[in-house]
Design goal:
six-stranded mixed β-sheet; Amino acid/polyamine transporter I; alpha/beta; 2 domains; 637 residues
């Protein structure tokens, strides 16, 4: 009995220990999620309520404030709490989220609609890039503008200070975010606490502001002044920008910490601050022009400006990191040419730096700051890309609900219509601001969409053309087995996108060198519609004959391909791979435009430019440069 009790107690202690570790891990992830996931939406109170009030001036203050605040409350409730937290976060692709993850999930669930789903996914990804240059600009600029509340004489220094902060932010990207990310969570937690307390303090200015919880005020506001309300809705949407980050960063933190952080910290603090701003405006007769900063006591202004700047930098960092991650996914899914990727952490594969992407975003952000000059002006440019991306998410979610979750049509359609109507309303309300600044995000999104479409189209034409001119591998292998050329020791690995045809590098090697290695591997690298592929599913080997073998390496779209490391797995399947006796043969194509390509000349030239700008395959696939032989060929497309 004593032994039995002892065992039972030990088991209980072990279970409680595991529970304690899991609970601690969840708390740590929650803290991290506050910084990375909620940085963007957490800084929206700086400008969202202000812009919504300014969108339709001249109305009765009380009706106006209650109506706007009610719209914000219910936008946060329906868009973030119901749509993203309750439903979208459940649509994970092996734990990963984001537009391209959802696209891959939808395509695998509904192969018949793969082409249309691809178009929707491309639109969503392109719109995210449009958002990625506006978020850092408006966030940091709005925080620095708090200095003008301290003293208007600092107004002339707002843009220069913003540019300096942004320059520092982009210049440190190459060092990685690992070291500073540790403080993201605590700083953002302090930020939410500060804005929550500030709002709570002013609730007593006019407690009747709590009436805005009633959706009647939102509906009444929309019905009483539809024209003015339509403009206001576009500004109200600023309160929910950043909601898409919940899904984008799903793979970093998991659903549980993100959901817990939303309900326990973020949502309550956001509501408190918005209600506090509303009560402050009502108590002061609608006169405050920048209620977020004006409702603070004098002693708290400078500390809050500093904290706001830190919070907006963190929010910007999250968007920049998201752009790096999305670009890598797009490259892996062959939506973009290879782009140089630098890993900034030996421990975390997700921490990457893309010099070219970083430079382009930095240039775009700084041009926006200089060109628009204020967060109020930039607010007009904000919104279109985010609303468009949310609309694409809603459409893809419908496919997942119907085809993967097997929901009944009525239920899936009802939810899709609810989300779709709201997303469309926000989108239309922002579309009217195209002339005022919305053209920026639309231009960026269209440009990215054009680039991805051109790359997809060009690579397809190039593949078809080269395949027509290539010899089937099985035919060549059979002939070489009958009449063997001079064999040299070692292994030759020929990289190709078409494992059924003889690679160009192999044909040129036979033509010019008149020799063949004892062992020849036709290697193709494919990307799976899932974020990570386990090593057990990484390698597929197929023997053609005693001279040739096909090897297919599969990587997830969140993984960075490493060919030597993957080939080492082949040892378990009988192939004694030795990097020191292996030569990698790569074809380097020189492309020329052709009138018979099937694409317009301008698109031909764009594709050729993209191909020339692609990162070196040797570096991208992490092949030792001393083991690589490149053979050039000229192809007209």
């Amino acid at each position: 009995m004593a032994l039995a009790n002892s065992g039972s107690e030990a088991e209980t202690v072990e279970q409680s220990s595991h529970a304690g570790v899991e609970q601690h891990s969840t708390k740590v992830l929650m803290l991290g999620a506050l910084g990375v996931v909620y940085g963007d939406i957490g800084t929206s109170p700086i400008y969202a309520f202000r812009e919504a009030l300014h969108a339709s001036p001249g109305m009765d203050t009380r009706v106006h404030v209650l109506g706007v605040l009610s719209l914000i409350v219910w936008a946060l409730t329906i868009i973030v709490t119901i749509k993203y937290v309750a439903f979208v976060l459940r649509a994970d692709n092996k734990g990963e989220g984001g537009t391209l993850s959802l696209m891959s999930l939808a395509r695998s669930a509904y192969p018949k609609g793969a082409r249309l789903i691809l178009v929707i996914g491309l639109c969503g990804a392109a719109l995210f890039f449009g958002d990625s240059i506006i978020t850092p600009a408006i966030s940091v600029l709005s925080a620095v503008e708090g200095l003008t509340v301290v003293t208007p004489t600092l107004d002339a220094y707002v843009v220069p200070i913003t540019l300096v902060i942004l320059a520092i932010l982009f210049s440190v990207q190459r060092f990685g975010t690992g070291k500073v990310a540790a403080v993201f969570g605590p700083v953002t937690a302090l930020w939410f606490l500060a804005i929550g307390v500030a709002g709570l303090y002013h609730l007593l200015d006019d407690p009747s502001i709590l009436l805005a919880i009633n959706p009647y005020y939102a509906v009444a506001y929309l019905a009483s002044t539809p024209t003015a309300a339509f403009v206001t809705v576009g500004a109200v949407f600023l309160a929910v920008t950043g909601a898409e980050a919940l899904y984008v960063d799903l793979g970093h933190f998991g659903r549980k910490p993100i959901v817990l952080a939303w309900f326990s910290v973020v949502f309550p603090c956001l509501l408190l601050n918005y209600f506090g701003q509303g009560a402050f405006v009502l108590a002061n007769g609608g006169r405050p022009t920048n209620p977020f900063f004006q409702m603070l006591p004098d002693w708290a202004l400078m500390p809050m400006v500093g904290l706001a700047t830190a919070a907006t930098v963190i929010a910007s960092q999250a968007v920049i990191s998201g752009a790096f991650s999305l670009t890598r996914q797009a490259v892996q899914l062959n939506l973009l040419p290879r782009i140089e990727v630098q890993h900034t952490s030996e421990m975390q594969s997700g921490q990457i730096y893309m010099p070219r992407v970083n430079l382009l975003i930095a240039m775009g952000v700084m041009l926006l700051v200089v060109g628009f000059g204020s967060s109020s002006s930039l607010a007009s440019a904000y919104g279109i890309s985010v609303t468009g991306e949310m609309l694409m998410t809603t459409i893809l979610l419908f496919v997942v609900m119907r085809k993967m979750w097997k929901w009944k049509l009525a239920l899936a359609l009802a939810l899709t219509l609810l989300f779709g109507v709201i997303d469309s309303g926000f989108f239309l309300a922002n579309v009217v601001k195209i002339v005022e600044g919305g053209w920026v995000s639309i231009t960026v999104a269209c440009l990215m969409g054009l680039i991805m479409w051109t790359w997809i189209r060009g690579t397809r034409y190039l593949f078809d053309k080269t395949r027509r001119n290539e010899i089937p591998l099985d035919f060549l292998a059979a002939n070489l087995l009958k009449k063997k050329p001079h064999l040299v020791s070692g292994t030759a690995v020929f990289l190709t996108s078409d494992p059924l045809s003889a690679p160009t590098a192999l044909m040129h090697s036979l033509k010019h060198y008149k020799v063949l290695h004892e062992q020849n591997v036709i290697l193709s690298v494919v990307t799976a519609p899932q974020p990570v592929v386990p090593d057990s599913e990484r390698v597929k080997m197929e023997t053609v004959n005693e001279l040739f073998m096909r090897v297919t390496l599969t990587f997830g779209y969140m993984e960075q391909p490493n060919i030597p490391r993957a080939l080492a797995i082949c040892r378990k399947q009988g192939w004694k791979f030795d990097i020191m006796t292996t030569s990698f043969f790569l074809s380097r194509r020189s492309l020329k435009a052709s009138p018979n390509s099937g694409m317009p000349v301008w698109q031909d030239r764009l594709f050729i430019g993209l191909a020339r700008s692609a990162a070196d395959a040797t570096e991208y696939f992490q092949i030792p440069t001393g083991r690589v032989v490149e053979i050039g060929t000229q192809v007209a497309i």
